[in-house]
């Protein structure tokens, strides 16, 4: 099967799942509870093992396929799409950052158990410390914005070693969600992405052993590709929100009876102002989709280089992904806002749920400031400069 055919197959799986998620997405959004039944649907669909290499029990798909799946789900349920996006990136540490032996072990365990990977790695909240013991470390501290940590099977945790021979080094481990001392606080109360399970986690003297380690911190280009991967996932998440918002708006416009009393048209769908706005938004979304597909395939090419990838390769793809993030951020915000201009006052009813798209994109687009992505692209274009490797760049 060609890569394109494989992508189409998995996008079709995601689109079918999205139809199921659409049935109660508004009720679930209003409840704000963790999406445990929805994660079971992801497991049953095969999407959770999409990026695990086939030789280790997974589907062996490419990143361009994975982000296309995220995009398809985000059209209906951006919260569940976000959890899946973070799952892919968290799990990918087994391929990018782990040793070959450790990577195989984590991949096999993930595929066999159909794990969903949450995380607790927020770098702007560095209140985690690994204190060495005779048997490993004791982990203590609190992390906010820990997506999927309260709903997934395992949690990717990153912190700094405090004391001993490795003092000051960054350590990343994988812990079961129900391990003693791991306490999700259930404090996620955002405007949107309400089912993304993104609350804080407190670690109270958690025993950590060497078998829990997935990687030590590294600026090696290939090992740090999970950061461009998450930004690529965001770009596709935002594009999916824009697509879903416009699709719902089109349905609402087609159902509208009559037209504005000053209009020369008999129906809202024939009004030139309505057609102008829909045409403008559709064109911008189509352009963003083309950019997303091109960028996804470019990322595949860099990933395929493996550890032969250079700093220049990583820097170049990071800029390409930053371009996508800029475009999809603006496109989704603009679309989710302007669709109300053509759907009318009745579309503002809570029962319609058209606001879900705007609340979701407005919330997640604040993850990291898009203005710094603009600077990242500008510095590269003008001066050939790359940003320092981090969990955001």
Give an account of the 3D structure.
- There is one protein chain.
- This protein has 393 residues and is an alpha+beta fold.
- It folds into 3 domains: 114 residues, Butyryl-Coa Dehydrogenase, subunit A, domain 1 (Orthogonal Bundle), CATH 1.10.540.10; 98 residues, Butyryl-CoA Dehydrogenase, subunit A, domain 2, CATH 2.40.110; 158 residues, Butyryl-CoA Dehydrogenase, subunit A, domain 3 (Up-down Bundle).
- Helices cover 51% and strands 12% of the residues.
- Helix 8 runs parallel beside helix 10 and helix 9 runs antiparallel to helix 10.
- The chain is globular and about 80 Å long.
- The model has no long low-confidence stretch (mean pLDDT 95).
Write the layout of secondary structure elements.
Elements: H1 3-22, H2 25-31, H3 36-45, H4 63-74, H5 78-91, H6 93-96, H7 100-113, E1 117-120, E2 128-133, E3 136-143, E4 154-161, E5 170-176, E6 182-184, E7 201-208, E8 213-216, H8 226-255, H9 272-304, H10 311-338, H11 340-343, H12 355-364, H13 370-383
Parallel strand pairs: 1-4, 2-4
Antiparallel strand pairs: 2-3, 3-7, 4-5, 5-8, 6-7
Helix pairs in contact: 1-3, 1-4, 4-5, 4-8, 4-9, 5-8, 8-9, 8-10, 8-12, 9-10, 10-12, 10-13
């Amino acid at each position: 099967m060609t890569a394109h055919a494989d992508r189409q197959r998995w996008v079709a799986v995601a689109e079918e799942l999205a139809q199921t998620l659409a049935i109660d997405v508004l009720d679930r959004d209003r409840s704000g509870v963790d999406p445990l039944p929805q994660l079971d649907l992801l497991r049953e669909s095969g999407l959770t093992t999409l990026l695990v290499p086939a030789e280790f029990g997974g589907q062996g798909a490419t990143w361009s396929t994975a982000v296309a799946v995220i995009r398809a789900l985000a059209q209906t349920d951006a919260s569940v799409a976000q959890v899946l996006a973070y799952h892919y990136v968290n799990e990918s540490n087994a391929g990018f950052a782990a040793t070959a032996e450790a990577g195989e072990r984590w991949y096999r365990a993930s595929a066999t158990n159909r794990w969903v990977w949450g995380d607790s790695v927020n770098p702007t909240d560095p209140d985690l410390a690994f204190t060495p013991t005779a048997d490993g470390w004791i982990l203590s501290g609190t992390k906010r914005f820990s997506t999927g940590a309260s709903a997934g099977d395992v949690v990717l945790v990153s912190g700094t070693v405090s004391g001993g021979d490795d003092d000051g080094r960054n350590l990343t481990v994988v812990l079961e969600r129900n391990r003693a001392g791991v306490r999700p606080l259930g404090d996620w109360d955002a405007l949107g992405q309400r089912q993304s399970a993104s609350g804080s986690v407190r670690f109270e003297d958690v025993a950590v052993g060497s078998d829990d380690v997935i990687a030590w911190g590294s600026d090696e280009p290939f090992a740090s590709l999970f950061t461009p991967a998450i930004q690529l996932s965001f770009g596709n998440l935002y594009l999916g929100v824009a697509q879903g918002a416009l699709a719902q708006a089109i349905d609402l416009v087609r159902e509208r009876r009559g037209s504005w009393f000053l209009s020369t048209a008999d129906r809202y769908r024939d009004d030139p102002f309505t057609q102008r706005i829909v045409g403008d938004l559709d064109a911008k979304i189509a352009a963003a989709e083309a950019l997303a597909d091109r960028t996804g395939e470019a990322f595949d090419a860099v990933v395929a280089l493996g550890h032969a990838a250079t700093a220049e390769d990583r820097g170049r793809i990071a800029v390409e992904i930053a371009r996508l993030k800029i475009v999809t951020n603006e496109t989704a915000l603009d679309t989710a806002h302007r669709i109300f201009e053509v759907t009318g006052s009745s579309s503002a009813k809570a029962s319609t749920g058209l606001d879900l798209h705007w609340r979701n994109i407005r919330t997640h687009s604040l993850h990291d400031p898009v203005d710094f992505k603009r600077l990242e692209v500008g510095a590269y274009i003008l001066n050939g400069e790359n940003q320092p490797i981090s969990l955001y760049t």
